[in-house]
Amino acid sequence: MDPNIALPLIPVVLAGGVGSxxxxxxxxxxxxxxxxxxxxxxxxxxxxQRAAALRGLRELITVTNRDHYFHTKDIYASxxxxxxxxxxxxxxxxxxxxxxxxxxxxxLVEARHGPQAILLVMPADHLIxxxxxxxxxxxxxAELANEGRLxxxxxxxxxxxxxxxxxxxxxxxxxxxxxxxxxxxxxxMVEARAMVDAGNYLWNSGMFAFSAASVLSAFERHAPLxxxxxxxxxxxxxxxxxxxxxxxxxxxxxxxxxxxxxFAVMESAAALAEVAVVRATFDWSDVGSWQAxxxxxxxxxxxxxxxxxxxxxxxxxxxxxxxxxxxxTVGVNDLVIVDTPDALLVAHRDHLQxxxxxxxxxxxxxxxxxxxxxTVARPWGTYTVLEEGAEFKIKRIEVKPGASLSLxxxxxxxxxxxxxxxxxxxxxxxATFDIGSGQSTYIPIETKHRLENRGEEMLAxxxxxxxxxxxxxxxxxxxxxxxxxxx
Length: 487
Known about the structure:
- The protein is α/β, with parallel strands linked by helices.
- Helices cover 24% and strands 32% of the residues.
- The chain folds into three domains: 9-280, Alpha-Beta Complex (Spore Coat Polysaccharide Biosynthesis Protein SpsA, Chain A), CATH 3.90.550; 290-354, no CATH class; 375-479, Sandwich (Jelly Rolls).
- The chain has eleven helices and 27 strands.
- The protein has a six-stranded antiparallel beta sheet, with no helix packed on it.
- The longest helix is centred in the N-terminal third of the chain and has 16 residues, at 98-113.
């Protein structure tokens, strides 16, 4: 198939992953697809551009967490003419891995575009620079998918890698394509070296193409419990299936098995010779670890790289991410150092796969550093925790033009607001009034209140909270333009 011919593809972007091996930069509230790369862009934005460049694009479906919807929407909007024009969002209340997400997307595509429409499943956290080669691989995959095959994309390995899965290539089935003989999940180093030396193994990229009918039939044969659960979820969405935002019911979604698409469908389908693999020629990285992240920055003569203010003395092969202060290294080798306002990672390059264990330990301790940054994005803007201690917390709150916080109250804290930039429209109890730069107001405990920015510039305030409990869950919402009030 000529890659310049319009492709009847429906890209499905999976943006539900956390990227725990990239902690402390990637966290649950701001996961890997949303974090800024050295070039100032995001992996999600790059994926959206890649999808928008496919000829014949009918619709882009993005599966993401409900809490990330507004950030995702803002990233797509920032792409302008280079971004997708027709977007639909499937909003998960929590993650259940990739199999349920793909099954639900297939049901949506079947309903909107027919059973022969082809899904192109694209994880949101991949980096691919060669757009022409990607389009050519997508065209080849579409051709095979039109024949009823389940298609995956394989990447020629450049080195033995224990963090990736592999695909064994069987019989050739035309240009750049093979029958997928089997899938191998993240092998030990000895096995990884043997597969690279054999020459007939490819890295499993986690990208797929298939018709809605083919993949739903495969779910029926190989993972009927997943499909049954997603049909139940779909019944709850059907009444709203023409809308761009579809929120998934938590109760019915929780009944779905938590399983990857490879385990649920592709491994069993490969054993029956139902899977084809396209050998991709484009560059590819899943940016899945700090080793991969460091490779995005140019190195000096000693192999050192990074971003921010750095001083390196007698240092070799070390990556430093310095967020907001100088980081100096003296007499060290082979380290990755990531310094953020509230967390510091120091790791040897040989142990970077174990960074996810730090996230697990923080979860066990109930420490919020696994989940939140000092600066937290909200639909209306951001807040940054400047300082906190016994019975007080100080925040800087920035509200976008035209945005507003919910009408809310707190049972266990009062708040003092001081405007430092812009003009704030304040609702406090029954009163509504404006305060400008240098002015302040007080919000008593158990009082309904709202903060709005009706101006054309960013509103910035300093908020001082006082109380015995200052957790973010001490919020009772009565009205919210972003849909965060329970029905």
